[in-house]
Design goal:
3 domains, mainly alpha
């Protein structure tokens, strides 16, 4: 009865906290654009008459996080995944996911140790989604890079400048290539050099193939040469590399699925046994020896999964 009351109170607090945070964060976005426009346009006021933009709660939290290396690294990761979120918003999302995981663990298992483990899983869920989105975005960009280079070469040979050719890529190609080249064109239009804009794109899309292309463009800009022929050669190299990577993924798919199966099978069996007989499995979490055994087993399973993943990831 006491456990049910604690769970109910926790759910009420969680719902209230979620509503309050979402309301404040949404409210904080309302005046951001207006404040930025007034900062640059000044609306005819003098410097003494200029009012200071109102700092919202989300902006204050975002600025405090960005002062630390954790916040700067997280901002870079969000840019790589092309998630339109502030650092503060992602941080709050991680906290909410953790609390929801703990509450779900209490409802399902009642045992505090298992609830904490579910909370840890909930904390890493947004980060897992962030990494998956990054890898999927880089993979899609690499698959489209050969076509984008061929279109870029065709545009250059037809008489377009480099900036005009990138505008063609931004309008003709699908996501994420179109978004990245549109950002490059926008940054060059706003005053950045082409080298800086391409380097910024390379930071957002950490691809070896793109690095080779950006290096070739920067070298050609310094020393000159036939840019169309250079990009044509790079396009053939990238196409061959993509073909070889596809063959490697096909050959290692069975080993990777075996790694997933062997790694998640112990957790699935443990969950099934706990649902069938909670008192029997609950004894494993009631003393220090049982908790140490569980921690050792989890550590060994995770280590084995990472080793299998490292073996099947062949770099070319």
């Amino acid at each position: 009865m006491q456990v049910a009351i604690v769970i109910a109170l926790g759910l009420m607090v969680m719902i209230g906290l979620t509503t309050w945070l979402v309301w404040h964060l949404a409210r904080g976005q309302s005046g951001v654009i207006q404040n930025r426009l007034e900062t640059y346009a000044a609306r005819g006021r003098t410097l003494n008459q200029e009012r200071r933009p109102r700092r919202t709660m989300a902006a204050q939290l975002d600025q405090a996080l960005r002062r630390r290396s954790y916040g700067q690294h997280l901002a870079d990761e969000l840019a790589k995944a092309d998630l339109q979120l502030r650092v503060s918003e992602f941080f709050v999302l991680s906290i909410l996911s953790t609390v929801v995981g703990v509450l779900i663990g209490l409802i399902l298992f009642v045992v505090p140790v298992l609830a904490l483990l579910v909370g840890v899983v909930g904390f890493f869920l947004p980060r897992f989604y962030l990494r998956r989105r990054q890898s999927a975005r880089v993979k899609a960009f690499n698959e489209q890079l050969g076509d984008s280079l061929r279109l870029l070469v065709s545009s250059l040979r037809s008489g377009y400048s480099m900036l005009q050719s990138m505008e063609v890529l931004a309008s003709e190609l699908p996501e994420p290539t179109s978004t990245e080249y549109a950002r490059v064109v926008r940054e060059v239009t706003l005053g950045l050099s082409q080298e800086q804009a391409l380097n910024n794109m390379l930071k957002r899309v950490p691809s070896d193939d793109l690095d080779m292309m950006v290096t070739a463009l920067n070298v050609q800009r310094e020393v000159g040469g036939n840019l169309g022929e250079i990009l044509d050669t790079i396009s053939g190299t990238i196409a061959e590399r993509v073909r070889i990577q596809g063959e490697i993924r096909a050959l290692t798919a069975q080993q990777m699925m075996s790694g997933y199966l062997v790694s998640f099978l112990p957790f699935g069996i443990t969950l099934i046994l706990y649902m069938m007989n909670p008192s029997y499995m609950g004894q494993l979490f009631q003393d220090v020896c049982g908790i140490a055994m569980v921690a050792t087993g989890v550590l060994m399973v995770v280590s084995g999964f990472l080793i299998i993943r490292k073996i099947v990831q062949i770099q070319i």
